[in-house]
Structures are given as structure tokens and as C-alpha cells.
User: Fold these one by one.
Assistant:
Number 1:
Amino acid sequence: MQEAIRIENVSVIYRPKGSRKLLRQYLQDRLTGRRDEGFYALHEVTLRVGRGEGLAVVGANGAGKSTLLAVLAGLLEPDEGAVQVDGRLSTLMELGSGFHPDLNGWENLRLYAAILGMARAEVKQRAEAIVDFAELHGYMEQPLRTFSSGMVLRLAFAVAVHADCDVLLIDEILAVGDAAFQKKCHRRLMELRDRGCTLVCVSHISAMLESLCGRGLWLHHGRAVMDASYQEVAAAYTSFMNGTDRHLWDALPAAPVRTAGA
Amino acid sequence: MARPGARQPAMRRSNLGFVVSELVLKDFKVRYRNMSLGVFWSLLNPLTMVALLTFVFTKIFRSQIPYYPLYVLCGLIPYNFFTLAWLTATTSVSENPALVKKVRMPTALLPLVSVLSNTIHLFIQLLLILALVAWYGIPVTWHYAWLPLIWGLELVFIYGLGLATSSLHVVVRDVRYVVESVNLVLFWLVPIFYSFAMVPPEFRSLYEFNPVAALVLATQNVILEHRSPRPVLVWKMTLVAGVFLLAGGWIFARLRKRFYRYL
Ligand SMILES: Nc1ncnc2c1ncn2[C@@H]1O[C@H](COP(=O)(O)OP(=O)(O)O)[C@@H](O)[C@H]1O
Ligand SMILES: [Mg+2]
């Protein structure tokens, strides 16, 4: 099988206190050579995903799922390791990045499509299909602030799934709109996958996730603790989350990073 | 160190123009759609300043500069444009974490969008200058052909500066206040209410290296003096714009890796 994603020993270090500083603090730390302490948000993660495969990433809050997607998307450069992604990559990490409440439906559609990397001609060609998909005919002339939050998400989702892609990264946004719309989203994602688009989905365990993803990856404190078929990972993860052996895992905390000079 | 493999660019080159124009259009619509007086607001500030400066410098200080209100506008409009464009470019990255962390749009477009959005604003104000030119009956000459070039150079300069300060602003929070202070000082280093001829000769050559002052001088040359800017002035602008674009691009490229973690 051809590989669409290949990452090798990827580690990401976050230094929560090392982010934006005031000038005085920045200079002080620079001069004294102090390094802020950090931890591994991802620790030596190795992963291969084949073309057209669906991978579900599960794990508790703060396990590093979003960080992994950011690394795959090229939004975050890892501290160690190599990342390779083949083909056109698209993200569904937050619906409607760049939307503005004062613009109307059409304007937001164009804006979001442009931000996601579509061409002007593609947008023109697909606009009708997008509105059909979102079921928003008759609303598109209204400013976005008059839309219900469900309608906003529907519009955003519709735009995003009409972008061409070979790899699609989805972060916790599978549950959009009512049951009927969710079914539609699901069908669309299946369609994309069957056309050869690789899916990486961060989501909660659900029937929908199962049908999209044949494989599962379980992250815990930044480590890939299980990489197997979806059923196996889902079963193990669910029994862990409900189970009594959770305390065993606390013996495996996020690895701290030794700070220079400490 | 990470060795990113062969990765397709976030956006095809041909689509960059589309996203920039959509973002500029968004700024424009958002700014003007909800204002009953619309464009008038963007003229109010320069008009007030012109009235004030004209009163102070023609009635109190008795300046001998002809067409004083027009003279002031030729300085004030470029100055205002520069300060606003630079400030909004500086905050463009840190105020758009969603566009930096959630989608693969090239982040270097953000300061560019800020500069271009302010350029639309600028065009509206330039109409004010043309209106005054018509009102005074000052002839319009072929030297006006210089205006697109010198304004273009100014845009390049501000974009370079914006690349540097927008990325620095992500790392150090108070860069914004530094920018604001520099803008205040700059007001006195640009021939807005005094004339270039009053600058002592030994400082003039240095003074011209300030691209905002150079822009004002060139604009005055064209509109009030009916002549082309001196070649040395244009060369200086070109040099400074080129250096700032390269340096700004370099700084931005180095700091970009921290954006995801810091925002
Ligand atoms: N920019 C950041 N700087 C510092 N720490 C961060 C940053 N982003 C996330 N973290 C921390 O890193 C850990 C992993 O985050 P994340 O990948 O978002 O987890 P998940 O998506 O699995 O809930 C969390 O403990 C989170 O608080
Ligand atoms: Mg997350």
C-alpha cells in the first residue's frame, strides 16, 4: 500500500511559561540564558498511514491529539523527528476560521473557501453545490450574525468538504448539526475516503467514527500507546476510560524536559 | 532537527491573490458597511488636523508656505497612512490565531492584507488632495506619473517593516507600544507642517533616508512644485524599501516556527 503520511520519532516540547513575554522578561531570560521548563506534548511518535486509509486518534483531554494534527498539517514544526505528507492536505480543525458576522452567507462562503486554498474558479463552480449541501438556500443573502450556530457550522462544513484534498485532518468536529445533517456529513466523508482521500479523525468513540476509520491510534500523555485496528483500540480505550485500572496509567506521566542550567 | 519531507505548499501560488483580495475585501466591507456616514469618517480625521494646523501655522506662526492646507494634507495623509498600516500590520498575526493555528494559509499574507486594506482607505483620502488641487486651480502635470512608483515603494517598505514587527510582536508582547511610540516621534521627522527647506543642510541627506519623509517630499514635488522627485530621493527610497523587505522577510521566516506555540 502507498503511504500518504509517514512520521518518524516525532517529539514536540511545549514550554507553557516560555510563550509571549514582555520585553523586560524576554531580555532577562535571554541574558541569564534561562530556559523555561517544558514537557513533551508528543514523545517519539512514529506513524504510517496508507493512502485512502481512515485513522481515528483517541485519547483523554490534553493527550496531544490536536498537537499531532498540527504537526501533520505543517502548522507546527516538531522539535525532533521527521514528517512526510504526500499530496494536497486540508484541515477541518475549527469550523469557519475567518468567518465574519457582518458579512452575508455568500461572502463568508467565498472568504472561507479562499482561506482553505480553493481557486476563484473552483469556488464559482462549486458555490451552488455547497449551498445545496448546507441546505441554506434563501438564507445566503442574510448577514451571518442572523444565522443560528448550527447554520454557521453547516455552512463551514459544507465549504470545507468541497475542497479538493488527498489528506484531510479533522479535529473534534464530526458532530455538526442535527441527526440528518450528521448523516450527510458522514456520507460525504465516506465518499471522499473511497475516492482515495486519507482521513485522520480526532473524535470520541462512535459508530460514525468506526465506519470511517479502519485503524485507531491511542495517545496518552503524548505517547502512542496503541496502534491497531479501530475495534481493538476502541475496546481497550473504552474499558480504560470506564475501568478501574486507570490509576496504573498515572505511572506514565508526560515526560518533563530537563531545563538547561537546572 | 526536524526534516520536513516533500510537502505540497499550503496553497497554490495562483490562489494567493484570491485569498488576499478576499481578506482585503472583508476588511473594507466590515469597516464601511455599518457606518451610516461611511467614507466620511475616514476624511474627518485629516480634515480636523488640517484645519487645526492651518490655523496655528498661518494665523499664529505666520508660515509663508503657499496653499498651506494642501501642503499639510500632502504630509498628513502619507503620515497617517504609514502609522495605521504599520500598526495594523504589527498586530495582524497575533490577532488572528485561528488563521495561524487552524488553517494552512501562509501567515506572511496577514501583514500584507493589513497594508493593502489601509491602501484602500488611502485612496479615499487622496481624492481629498485632488479635490483641493482642483479647488485652488493648480495644474495637473505629467509628473503625476511618479506617484504610483513612489507609493509602490512605500508599500514595499511598510510590508517589510510589518513582516518584522508582526513576528516580533508574537514573541514580545510590547512591540506594539514601541511601534506606537516610534510613530509619535516620527510625526516630527516628517515635513508635515514645516518645510524641507527649514531642515539644516547638513541633515538633509540623512533626513531623506526616512522613507515616510521621502514619500512626503516626493508627493509635494509632484503636486505642489510640478516637478519630478530628484533621482537620488527615489534611489534612497528603493534602497531602504529593498533592505527592509529582505530583513523583514528574514526575521519573519525565523520567528514563524514559534507562532503555533506562542499564540
Ligand atoms: N501552545 C501551547 N503551549 C503550551 N502548552 C500547550 C499548547 N498547546 C497545548 N498545550 C498543552 O499540551 C497538551 C496537549 O494539548 P493538545 O494537543 O491540545 O491535547 P488534546 O487535543 O489531545 O486535548 C495539553 O496539556 C495542553 O494544555
Ligand atoms: Mg484537542
Note: The radius of gyration of chain A is 21 Å.
Number 2:
Amino acid sequence: MVKGAQALIESLRREGVTHVFGYAGATICEAADALAASDIGYTLVRTEQNAGHMASGYARMSGKVGVCMVTSGPGATNLITGIATAYMDSIPMVAITGQVESHLLGRDIFQEVDITGAVAPFIKHSYLVKDAREIPRIVKEAFHIASTGRQGPVLIDIPSDIQKKEIDPIYPETVDLRGYKPSYKGNVVQIRRVADAIEEAKRPVICAGGGIFSAGARDELRALAESAGIPVVTTMMGLGVLATDHPLNMGMIGSFGNICANKALAKSDLLILAGARVANRAILSPTEIGRRMRTIHLDVDPAEIGKNVSTNIPVVGDIRCILRQIMEHGPHVDSQDWIDALQEKRKGELAAELPRLKAGVHPGKVMKSLGLQMDEDACVCVDVGQNQIWACRYLPLHGGRFLTTGGLGTMGYALPAAIGAKVACPDCQTIVVCGDGGFQMAFNELATLVSQGSDVKIVLLENHVLGLVNEIQKKSYSGPFGVNLDGSPDFELLARAYGIAFGRVEDDDHIDEAVERMFAHEGPYILCCSVDADTTTGD
Amino acid sequence: MKKIISVLVENQAGVLNRITGLFSRRAFNIESLAVGVTDDKNMSRITIIVDSGNNVVEQVEKQLNKLVDVIKVRTIEENHMIGRELILIKVSANTRTRQDILNVCQIMGGKIDDVSPTSMTLELSDTTEKVDLFEELLRPFSILEVARTGLVALQKGHGAI
Ligand SMILES: Cc1ncc(C[n+]2csc(CCOP(=O)(O)OP(=O)(O)O)c2C)c(N)n1
């Protein structure tokens, strides 16, 4: 006989879990006990939301399911933003929450919340465990659901008495869910139609989204683009699919994207959406698209097809598999003129000189310097706001990863995501780009970073305002309101308080050496870049 | 055009919640919803009537299919289904009006379920339009209380979902 909690941890071990991000509390003590006795690693975060973000960064870098574990009530509610963020970005995650004793459920006792009810609109699936003997089956199902089809978070809520209950666990080898059968292979007739459509196109373009990374289909996407001769644009979640200087990469689409990418999209006669949701910030006028060009939509989630933009040829399945299937037909487009014209625009855009601003650094120049000096395979975690737009637009990517939250746009994501990423890939250079607003939502995790001894480089764009909102309010409202970050700490003193090295750069002339100093330092580092509050994303 | 969406789900706690939650979150309008277990105890059937365009119904179907507890989803056009609704209606009645109420009931094919010195309770099961008319005809007698089930429906002919 073992306790429910022991069966839980053994089930995690069987799913290949090697690390859990969590926060302690009364209703999760039994599980913590069992975890302590196992060989699974553990990171204590500083607030539960960030356990979710760390699990997300971990999942995105490891390709495995990220796991977080917190207590009931406030622990669970604090985790909600982490779950919603993972859901919108389709990140595989299993969240485990403690719950009050099962016979007391529904009585509003101390630290009881209906967490499965609260997260229902933005979670892939959830379980409230009522019988300890079900734990092995539920964990098996949860990992299967989180990691297959369109990936996403799954919650397991376990009352404390169920964790204590003695059982004889039976660990199932397989999952049997009659209501859940995601497609893997693309329909062969549809695949043929895709290949034919490519052959017939004159100005095709592939729009790659985050689904390419979820499916591990980066190589396949590049292979198709190169062999068929199709230029590629990406959504924000698809950034990094091709190196920035890859001759077929025309940049990021959308309201904050590159001019060349948006041109390519507007002028194309065949749009191939590959693992991209075509949300409102990416494609401004979906109806226009449906009218002007043929569209092929490759996605693992049938509900995404036709949701935002009408589609001529839908293909549902695993993107990696679908791309391989398409390549078997060896489609090819004679598109050199189209590619040449786009490349010229793209080169012009990439080579454009950035101006010297009236004060502070040009953030775009910081991004360019970072891109030049960072490792080829660096993982860059980017927060939300102007800093994100500058990073998307100016940071050259090579073969590494660009982790940001495109779906929910949760400020404070980058730092915890980087800590999670570093746990997954300790040898991978990991960089955070954030603003002083987002940083102050997350800097409590500097303690986690220090305790983990993680070598994370933080590039902090300090403009003393909530920059993006400041910019919007100036442009379209009666003026800035409630965006001044008065009372912010001296970040150098803050860094020192945590024992983290610090550097500052105040003008364009010293960017390169400041970045060089940061990378030369062994261990965590905060590079604070002074940005004038008036600097806009249009500068 | 009205469509019936018939959904087979796992008979488990929280399933109905997930489904109604999905409708409200995605701003899909439900005209009626009825739930009951099927001949298989582990499965329930949820019958949902929506009055929306094809695109909306397609999205409803796809989103329902994404729920892990949903086993099967089918949509049927209004003219391919038999739909019925039940109404219970209590009206004021006295010796002077009782006969008139009885006439309405008989013409419409309704039934009398209860009579008191000052009231009558009637029942009718029919299409929504007929039920509406029934209610309208009884309005002059002063309606005290109404309960309607909303539409339940099955596919015409031999076919089953
Ligand atoms: C949790 C959260 N709250 C509010 C917002 C709205 N918001 C979007 S960008 C932004 C400003 C971000 O300011 P900062 O972190 O300083 O970055 P900057 O724009 O200055 O680069 C805000 C408040 C958000 N995205 N996330």
C-alpha cells in the first residue's frame, strides 16, 4: 500500500518528469513529502503565477510537459494567470493543486476555491480527484492530453485526504479516451490539393506560427520553403523558425511587424498558414485575405481552421507530419522574381540605419548588438510592451529560440520563463528582454534565479513608464495617465541586494561594450539601458 | 435557420458546466438545452437548439468536439428533425370561463391536468409555434403561471445519432 501522494509522484516519474516548479502550502504537504523522497528536482518560486511561467519556459525549451504544483485557495488562484498564459500560447503543462478535504468540498472552508471551475474557460482539461485509486489513470491522461493534439495546460486538483489515502496503485500503460482522438496524419486528398495549389501559385507565401515549434517542425518548414521556393513570414509566436538573415525569411507580420512581411502577405496569391492562428494582431483584415488570395490552412486544431479567416484548403493534423507529406509530392514554384522583389525590400529594411534619439539609447540598437554578440543558439525570453516590439523587429535570430507570450501578452512572463528555460537547458545561453514595468511584476523571482544559480542575462529597458500604454495614450487618447513608474527602485542597488552583477548603458556609443561586458561576466547580470520615455516604436 | 445539435457526452460531474460555459464564453446563443442519460448509463445526451448561421454552428460543433468529455456531436437541419416542446400553464377560471378555456384546450389538442374552484392547469406538447399560439389564446383568461421545457428533438426517419 502507498499513499495517494506517493502514487502521484510515481506517476509523474513514469511520465518522465524530472523537475517541478512549485510553492508550499497546507493542502499540498502530502505531495511535497512524496516529492522530497523522489529524485525529481524542485524549484521554489516566489509567487505561484511564476510557477506557471517557469513551467512554460521549461516546456518550450525541453519539448516536454512543464509541471507546477501549488496549494489550494490563494495558491491556486495565483496560478490562474500562468495557466491562462499557457493556454493562449498552446504550451503543454500539467498543473497540480492541493484541495481541501473532499468531504468538506462546497462549504467554503478555509482556503477552498473551486479552481477547476475558475479555470474552465482557459484550460484544455481538468480533473478533480475524488478517489485516490484514480490518480495513476488521471496523471497518465493529463500528460497525454497536455502533450498531444493542440497542446495546452491540464489541471489536476487533489483534495488533501485523497493524497493521504492508502491505495494499491495500478499504473496504466495506455490511455483510453473515446472523446479525445487528435488527428496526426493529414488527409491524403487534401495534401495532394495543397501540392497542386503550390504548383499553380505565382506568388506563394508561408505564414509560420508557434505551431511549428510545438510540433518540432522547424527543419521540415525550412526544407519545404527551400525546396519549393516559397518565402516565409512569421507571426510573433513563429519568430525564429528561420534565421533572420535566411534569404527566404521576410520577417514578422502584423501591426507591429515588418513592412516587407506585411507586403508579402498582401501581395501573395497563395497563403499557406502553418500552425498559425491568424489572431487579430497578426492579420489585420482577415476578410480581405479570404477575398484576395487562396488560402491553405495547416493546423492540428480543426477549430482554428475557418475561425478567423476563410480557408480554401484545410488540412488537419500534426504539422511536422503534414509538411513531410507535402514534400513527398515535391511541389515547386517558379518564383524567383517574386522572391527577388521581396528580398530587395527585406534587405533595405534590415540595413536601415536607426537614428540617434534626443536622449538615451535607441532600443533597436541594443537589440542589434545583442543579436551580434549572443550565442547562435541562445534562448531569448521577451516580455510585453515596447521592449517586445523592439525585440521582434530588430533582434537578429540565428538558430536559437525567441520565447514570448503572443496570446495573452502577460507582463512579467520573461524572467520566470527564462528561469524555467535554464532549468531545461542549463548550457544554453539565456537572455531576458523586458521593460521596467514588467520587470517590477516579476523581480521577486530574482531570488529564485539566485537560489538556482542560473546564469541569466537580463536586458532591462528602463524608460520610467509603461511604455507601450504611454505611447498609445499619447497617440489616441487625451494623454498619458497612470503610466508613470514613479517610486521605482534604483535597479543597481536592487541588483546588489540580490548579489547580481549590474551594468548600465546611457547612450548609443557604449552599447556594444556594455553588451560585451554582460556576456563576459559569468553568472546572472542585469544590463539596464536608459531609454527616453518619449521614445516610440515608430522611432 | 434553426439547427439541433445533439451531443453525446461522458456522464460525469462538471460536463454540463463545461458545455454551457463554452456557449457563454464564445457568445453562442442557445435557444434551448435539454439533458438526459441515454440507454448507456455512462453516456448522456445533450440536445441543444441554436438559431444561427452555418459558420457559427460549425464553430460550435468544432469547439464542442474539442472537449475531452464530448464523445460525439451531430448537427441536424430544422426540416430534418421532429421537435416538440411541453408547456404547463395555469390560468384563472371560474364557472363562467371554464367552458371557453376547455374549448381552447380541445381545439389545440391539449390536456387538463388540474382544476380548482378558481383555476385550471393545462398541458400541451407540440411544436414551438403551436405552444406559442396556445399560450396566446389563453392569455385573455389571465395566466397565473407557465412552465415550458424548451425543445427536444430527434432526427426524422430511421437514422440515429
Ligand atoms: C499583466 C498585464 N497588465 C497590463 C498589461 C497591459 N500592458 C501592455 S504593455 C504595457 C506596458 C509595459 O510597460 P513596461 O513593462 O515598462 O515595458 P515598455 O512598454 O516600457 O517596454 C502594459 C501595462 C499587460 N499586457 N499585462
Note: Chain A has three domains: 2-167, 188-348, 355-530.
